[in-house]
Recover the amino acids of this structure.
């Protein structure tokens, strides 16, 4: 697995830049208070996270659907979704199945 490595100085620079402009209030108003801006920017720098956000921007999807559409392993999808949910960048909903079970979608 290839991972994007972002230097801390780059994250600080982006964070400071965002503070100078209107981006930070508009984007981070929805972010959980305990999720620091550096963590949000690092999360958004991740290609897997961006792929998940792009896929869920069109319609709610379950984790298995995201695995298939984004060509990712289940563990990768669940890890990224958990982090996105912790930072309030996605919101999960439970939808009843016809067979009486519930599916969690984001």
């Amino acid at each position: 697995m290839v991972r994007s490595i972002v230097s801390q100085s780059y994250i600080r620079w982006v964070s400071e830049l965002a503070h100078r402009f209107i981006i930070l209030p508009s984007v981070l108003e929805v972010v959980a208070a305990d999720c620091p801006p550096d963590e949000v920017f690092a999360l958004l720098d991740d290609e897997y996270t961006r792929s998940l956000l792009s896929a869920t921007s069109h319609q709610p999807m379950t984790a298995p659907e995201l695995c298939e559409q984004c060509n990712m392993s289940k563990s990768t999808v669940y890890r990224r979704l958990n982090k996105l949910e912790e930072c309030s960048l996605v919101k999960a909903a439970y939808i009843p199945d016809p067979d009486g079970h519930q599916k969690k979608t984001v």
